């Protein structure tokens, strides 16, 4: 099952190879628009410049400069209803609790499969 072609995703990942792989996965799943950002500062600029919210923000947690929680904080100021999925290898309870209290909608634990990504995005597509 493919995702809606009208779906828009902001993908934030500082590792170029990982970002390109996830972008390919999103496009293969039928996502209509995948905006990419190489880091938190650039992502915040894209969020501030956006005329309308993305359907989903998919963001790496650990990045130099502004990390995933910093991006989430900025997103919630402008687009509080936008689902924010954190991509991470961190799974300790303190980190999970911190992200939940900040408003993260869900996690994708690295490495993740295309099926994991699709399942998460389908849940948000149904809510649109």
From TrEMBL:
Has UniProt tagged this entry with the keyword Phosphoprotein? yes
Read off the InterPro entries from this record. Answer: CheY-like_superfamily, Sig_transdc_resp-reg_receiver, ST_Response_Regulator
Q: Which residues form the Response regulatory domain?
A: 8-125
**Which parts of the chain are coiled coil?**
none
Task: Report which superkingdom the organism of origin falls in.
Answer: Bacteria
PROSITE patterns for the chain: RESPONSE_REGULATORY (PS50110)
Its Gene Ontology biological processes? phosphorelay signal transduction system
Keywords recorded for this protein, A-Z: Phosphoprotein
Give the sites modified to 4-aspartylphosphate.
Answer: 60
Fetch the SMART domains from UniProt: REC
Question: Does Phosphoprotein count among this protein's keywords?
Answer: yes
Q: Which PANTHER family match?
A: TWO-COMPONENT RESPONSE REGULATOR, TWO-COMPONENT RESPONSE REGULATOR ARR22
* Protein name per Swiss-Prot or TrEMBL: Response regulatory domain-containing protein
Q: Which organism is it from?
A: Roseiterribacter gracilis
